[in-house]
Amino acid sequence: MRMSLAQRVLLTWLFTLLFLIMLVLKLDEKAPWNWFLIFIPVWIFDTILLVMLIVKMAGRCKSGFDPRNGSQNMKKKVWYLVAMLLKLAFCLALCAKLQRFTTMKLAYVFIPLWALLLGAMVELGYNIFYVRRD
Amino acid sequence: MLFSLRELVQWLGFATFEIFLHGLALLAFSVLLVLKVDGAAAALSWWIVFVPFFAADGLSTYFTTIVSVRLFQDGEKRLAVLRLFWILTILSLKFVFEMLLCQKLVEHTRELWYGLIMSPVFILLQLLMIRACRVN
């Protein structure tokens, strides 16, 4: 079952809006909550995406699946899984830093985000400069 | 992941190259932010930290203007005007948000509260939702 574009946009929009509202409340000192609580919409959204991705990947284990059809697709899904985990690692490290659970430098917090952005840039660059020339 | 690149281009109205440009700007901004906050380049002003975003906005505007002029010359007048109007709205909202945030970080004024700073982003979210319904 695949969600329509409007459903996926609605899902993203709802969680982004909730997160921004909570962020504003926290930054304006109207809500003295823990940073991990502020990030609840992000955790829920990431969990939904991870579950959807894992269910799709597990579809390969079904009987009657022809592995010759989806090797390229599988590589893409593995990259998406890594990207999700990198994003989750960044958010967790950022929360820990903001909550002063750790005194590590901000550079270490940003390493997963940089890895994610570099990967995304390579994929986008491939789509712009390589696929079109083909 | 949740959206394919084609869907993103349709939804946001930006070309793939523009999305690439804004991604690069985010990467450069995060590096400058870390340098500023970690103290490796504490003397950097907040305006300089935000330069990648301002540059990406400027380049995107330039790119959009050229594409719209070409579309206009090719007789696609309605498409050219609609594209120019949409992209300029998005970019101006983004620019206002960046300016307000930068000003807040520089001056720490109490009058400039975060709800006000975020208001362009909230407007942007509503516009993106409306556009998604149309694209769908």
TrEMBL record, chain A:
Pfam families: Tmemb_185A. Keywords: Membrane, Transmembrane, Transmembrane helix. InterPro entries: TM_Fragile-X-F-assoc. The chain crosses the membrane at residues 36-58, 78-100, 106-129. PANTHER family: FAM11A, B PROTEIN (PTHR13568), TRANSMEMBRANE PROTEIN 60 (PTHR13568:SF4). This is TMM60 protein. The gene is Tmem60.
Automatic annotation (TrEMBL), chain B:
The chain crosses the membrane at residues 12-35, 47-72, 84-106, 112-130. Keywords: Membrane, Transmembrane, Transmembrane helix. CDD domains: TMEM203. It holds the Pfam family Tmemb_185A. GO terms for cellular component: endoplasmic reticulum. It comes from the Eukaryota. One of its GO terms (biological process) is intracellular calcium ion homeostasis. This is Transmembrane protein 203. It comes from Lamprotornis superbus.
